[in-house]
Amino acid sequence: MDDFALDFYGLSQRQQTLKGSEEQWESQVWASHCKEIRGGWFIPALYWQSVTLVMLLDRMMGMGFSKSMIEQAMAAKQPGKWFDGSHWRLWVGRHGWMVSPKDMTSPGAVVLVWEDGAVQHWGGYRLSIRKVVNEGGQDISSMISGHRGDSETYYFHLDVAKKSWVLRGWVNGDEMTAFGGTQKKLSDWFVDEKIESFVKPFVPLIVGAEGVLCAVGVRRSALHPLPEDAHSFWALSWEVL
C-alpha cells in the first residue's frame, strides 16, 4: 500500500471515529433532556442548543421531517405553529418542541360522578374522589386557598355533588373565574401557568352548567369553595400515568 493510500485510510478511520463520538454525544444529550410523553417526545430548547445543527437535522429528519420544516420551526416566534412530517407532527412551544403522532386526539367527554372512592381515568390521568370528614376540627385554611395545581388535590363544598359535571378536554372559548373574581379565557390561564399550546387539549377539565370547575393540575375555579367551618367536603386528587 503506497503512502497516499495509507494516508487516505488513516483519514477515513479518524472520520468514522469522530462521527461515532458525535452520535454517542447526541444520544446522551437526547436521553438527558428529551422526555417521552403520550407516545411522542418533548424536546426542550436546551437540546438543540447543546447539539450541532447537523446532529439536530439527522435526528429530526430521521423522524420524517424535512430540513425546511426544521429550519422554520427553529425560526418560529409564535408558539402553537406545527409541521406535519410523514408520521409525526412537530409542535412549536414556548420552551421547546413536541413531537406527537399525527392522529393523536384528545379523549372524549365522560360523566364525572361524585362518589366516595370513585376513580376515573381520562387520557394520561387517574382521578380519585373521596369524601373527607373533618372530625378533629383541623385547620383547613390551606385547603380553602389551595387553588393551584401544585398540591395535586382540590377541595370542594359538598354541594358540588348535587350538580352534573363532565370530564373533557379544552374547547376554544372556555372561561374560568378564579378566587378573587378574576375571569379569563382558559387559554389565558394556561399561558399564565406556562402550559404549552400543544398540551391544552390533553388537560382534563371538569365542566358543568355553571362553567369550568377546574383544569386539573393547572388551577381550580372559585366555584363551590369550602367554608371555613366545613366539617366534611370533597377531595379531588390526581396522578399523571
List its traits.
elongated; single chain; 241 residues; 2 domains; alpha+beta; 6 helices; 28% helix; Phenylalanyl-tRNA Synthetase, Chain B, domain 3; 5-stranded antiparallel sheet; 16 strands
Task: Kindly name the structural category.
Answer: alpha+beta
> How many independent structural domains?
2
SSE topology string: HEEHHHEEEEEEHEEEEHEEEE
- Return the CATH class of the largest domain: Alpha Beta
Strand-residue proportion: 25-35%
Q: Give the terminus-to-terminus CA distance.
A: 61 Å
Total DSSP helices: 6
Number of strands: 16
Stretches where pLDDT is under 50 for at least 5 consecutive residues are 7-11
Indicate the overall shape.
Answer: elongated
CATH architecture descriptor text of the largest domain: 3-Layer(bba) Sandwich
Question: What is the radius of gyration computed over CA atoms, rounded to a whole number of angstroms?
Answer: 24 Å
What does this structure look like?
- By secondary structure, the protein is α+β, with helices and mostly antiparallel strands.
- The protein has two domains: 3-101; 110-240, Phenylalanyl-trna Synthetase, Chain B, domain 3 (Phenylalanyl-tRNA Synthetase, Chain B, domain 3, 3-Layer(bba) Sandwich), CATH 3.50.40.10.
- The protein is 28% helix and 30% strand.
- The protein contains six helices and 16 strands.
- The protein has helices spanning 3-33, 45-50, 53-61, 67-75, 141-145, 186-192; strands at residues 35-37, 40-44, 82-84, 88-92, 96-101, 110-112, 119-122, 125-133, 153-156, 165-168, 175-177, 183-185, 205-208, 211-215, 219-220, 232-240.
- Strands 1-2-5-4-3 form a five-stranded antiparallel sheet. It has a five-stranded antiparallel sheet with strand order 6-10-13-14-15, with no helix packed on it. A four-stranded antiparallel sheet has the order 7-8-16-9, with no helix packed on it.
- Strand 1 (35-37) and strand 2 form a beta hairpin.
- The termini are far apart.
- The model is unreliable at 7-11 (pLDDT under 50).
